[in-house]
Amino acid sequence: MALFDLPLDQLRRYAPEVPEPADFAEFWATTLGSAAAKPVLIDVRPEPSDLALIDCWDVTFAGFGGDPIRAWYSRPAGRSEALPAVVEFLGYGRGRGLPHERPTYAAAGYAHLLMDSRGQGGQYGTGGDTPDPGGSAYGGPGPVTRGLLDPAEYYYRRLITDAVRAVEAVRALPGVDPSRVAVAGNSQGGGLALAVAGLVADLSAVLSTAPFLCHVQRAIDITDAEPYAEIVRFLAIHREAEDDVRRTLSYMDGVAFARRATAPAQFGVGLRDTVCPPSTVFAAANQYAAEHEVQVYPFNHHEGGEAVHVRRQLRWLCSKLS
Fold it and tell me: Is 309 annotated as catalytic?
């Protein structure tokens, strides 16, 4: 893919007027308050990781509406002290898979909670284990269009709430230092990490790479790539629904969450990324309210910096959690 978005010098200054609803803060305070009324941990049981140096547990915690959300909890084998923790969120269409698939953070010495994404897992990887009991609201077939006409019924209201509850869950697990918790993710996972950064006031660090659902109004105008294309297809059929769709998406936009963040953050972006266009990432990064940096990969698409970026993330994360 050739460069298609704004030049880098313009991207570094790009801070558009992304509107947010007047009741944005109230909407999320009410949503999270309802979720917090239920105890967070439901079940924790040992699970073989098949990795000699990593111990693992199968965790179930209460997410949106008290729905059971599955997760893998892993940590360096034989370590009993309270460790800093990384809560990781997954990309669109991917489930938590098998316990040995994502050993990086545990191998780096952290406690690691990998949250399953409700109702996903059928597009990539090795599947998921968490249904979405609230997934019957009117909308399209994919998660990004489920309940799209009403923010109260929208899929991402549930998933973002799950992500906030995942932070509460990791803090309740044995062997975690609750004062040192970071969130991390790529694509959809990066968008969730950014949302949590705006909703949880006492995180230690945020890793958000190619975050999805940022400056959404621009994204659906400039890219035909999935999953934004699902929204475009929905509107191509439901032509009268545009105002309702744009209103719903405004409650989930990463720019609004970025404006409320308090933890230091590292962003990553590929300048040829059509899945999460660079201008949408910079729109959030440039309005991020706390200390932050952006790692830029001029010749990369949605894969970004891959292992090079992971090394940069780990070195930066060590400086924040050590």
Answer: no
Give the Cα separation of 210 and 303 in Å (integer): 9
Pairing of strands 205-209, 265-270: parallel
Q: What percent helix, strand, coil does the chain show, rounded to 5? A: 35, 20, 45
Which domains, from first to last, does the chain contain?
Answer: 8-321 (3.40.50.1820)
How many Å apart are CA 120 and CA 296, to the nearest integer?
A: 29
179 annotated active-site: no
Q: Are 173 and 291 in contact (CB under 8 A)?
A: no
Q: Which of 116, 162, 253, 273 is catalytic?
A: 273
Specify whether 273 is catalytic: yes
Give mean pLDDT in consecutive 10-residue pieces for the chain, a chain of 322 residues. 93 97 98 97 97 98 98 96 98 97 98 98 93 82 94 98 98 98 98 99 98 98 97 97 98 98 98 98 98 98 98 98 92
Please pick, among 49, 74, 117, 187, the residue that the annotation labels catalytic.
Answer: 187
Instruction: Tell me what pLDDT residue 240 has.
Output: 97
